[in-house]
Amino acid sequence: MFPLKYRRKAISKKVGETLKQICLDISERYEVEFMEIGYETDHVHFLVQSVASYSVSKMVTMLKSITGKELFKRHPEIKKMLWGGNFWTSGYYANTVGQYSNEEVIRAYVKNQGMGKEYKQVYKAQLKLFC
User: Fold this and answer.
1) What is the pTM of this model?
2) Range of the domain at 65
3) Is residue 115 domain-shared with residue 70, that is, in the same domain?
4) Does the pLDDT value for residue 131 go beyond 70?
C-alpha cells in the first residue's frame, strides 16, 4: 500500500487508469506481474508477483520511482497538488502472500478499493482471519 504525499486526494479515475497503464509498461520491462491494482483518491494497493531476486524494498523503490515520474509527466496538474516533487510518501505497507495467507481474499480486497465502507469491512474481517 502506497499513500500519496501529504495524503492528498490526487488520484482521479483518469489518473488511476494512467497508473494502471504505467504498471503494465513496468510488467513488460521488469519481472513484475501486477495481479491486482486498486486505488482510492489518496492511496494505492498493489498485489504484485515477482522473482525472488527482488527484495521488497527494491521493488517498492522501483515502483514508486517509475510511477511517480510518469504520473507527473502525463498529468502535470498533479504537481500543483503535490509540491516538492514527490508523488508518494516515503513510507509503505507490504505483506507477503504465502502458506499462511489467502491470495484470493487479498486479491478481492485490493480489487475492491474505491467501493463503499460496507464492502471494505467484510474484506478487512476476512483479511484478519488469514493474515
Assistant:
1) 0.77
2) 2-94
3) no
4) no
